[in-house]
Amino acid sequence: MTTENFDTLTGTGGAVAFSHSPQQFDTLAGSGGGVQFTTTTGAVTTLFDTLPTVAQAGQFTTEVPAATFTPAKLIVEAWSADNATYLGELNEAYSRSFQDELSGLGRGSVSVLSTSANASLNPGVIRWKVATPEQLAATGGVYAFASRVEQKQWRYGSDEESGRGFTMSGRGLVSAWEDAIVFPYGGINARPSSDSRAFGWFSPELPTTGWKPAVVAISGLAPNSRTVPPLPDPWFPPLGWTSDLSGSDWVWSRATTFGTLDGASLFRSTFSLASADRVAIFYTAQSRCRVWIDGVLVTPGWTSEPNEESFIYAHRATPYLSAGTHYVAIEAESKPWTPVLPGVTRGILQCAIYSGGGAGATYNSGSRLLGTSSSWVCLDYPTVYPAPTPGLILRTLLEEAQARGALTGWSLSCTDTADSAGQAWDVDQAHVFRIGQTYADVLRQMADTSIDYRAQPAGLRLDVFRKDTVITREAAIFTIGINLTELEEDQPK
User: Fold this and answer.
1) Tens of pLDDT along 97-110?
2) Checking phi first, is residue 89 left (phi over 0); if not, alpha (psi -120 to 50) or beta?
3) pTM, whole model, 2 decimals?
4) Does one domain contain both 271 and 334?
């Protein structure tokens, strides 16, 4: 019991205001030395039972009963395997616990008596609901976690602790993402092939909205006899190039009048193959370059080492490609070690792709699939290379998995441009995954650098956030002496 002191009596005898700031007490029962003083708030009347002998001042006291402790309740519900159909509440649950962590799988376990009601539910998912007394009365509680039923153990005995019952346990819903694996772009039989799946500036998934058209520096390959501008022999065309001298242009990311820069520019284009075939890719740049097809590096690194003149020579790669549309990406560098050609900026790039890249093949305009021109798009000396957002990466992987019959019913609450809290993605970071890597491992890998994630307890929805920007949700507010009897906290040593 607690005692409150009231320190002012206004008036005498039948005074009507006794105060203990900020409360006012409005009724004096009886007269003079009466023994009950009351105050009414709403429908509640409080009685004060002591009046000092001096009427004009002093202390009036009341004893208030201690608050009744009512702990929060943990409710365990049975749901269908797709977490869409409510089956019922698991009653007689004498052991229940769950562990939920941001960007982790989590785990839940519940032991129940084997009543006919419990046995008939046969859930595929268990939802955990937490409620304070106030929440329980108002909303029935808040869903805090959901776990799959991956293991069911029976037990037999004569009492509740060892009685006939069963324990159901399993990992959180995110563990379903272990059922899908990373495939190559285009599928398992697509070519070119690689043992990894990269999402970077060079990958087909990255949109090129906002990229500028490439600038033609010199039309065609410029035979050795060309004198306008005066290009010294034997630099054009590069040694080993095809006889198709008009099928591709020397291009760069800016006009020649802009001067020279030390750095790299990025170039993108597409072409199509009617049927699977080996192709021949001819490429060179004034300093050096390297080429990707469908996000796979198809050239053996850079075309030259520092202080070598890459543009003198034609470089060639002959990958085997599947039928369909293919995405070409070239990173080309302009470096101070390369001599400046008369009338030409330091940066120039040339690429031509032909079908029929086998031994003894001839390359001409009839077999040309693509050549550098102003139809290519480019980024001019970017300081940060773009990359697909985490939302775009996960949407791409989820759609591919669902097309193969995995992760049915799952959705993302984030988008290509914003996370699940509506925050714009701010990470230009490439991600590389192993072919065959599970999607759960993909999530864990991305969580190391760029995202946090969690599954919604209701339905099959994954929330994805910018890393370290969202605090884990609280299903219920716990306060010592109100609905929490004991709190244990582990401090790192």
Assistant:
1) 888 888 888 999 98
2) beta
3) 0.78
4) yes
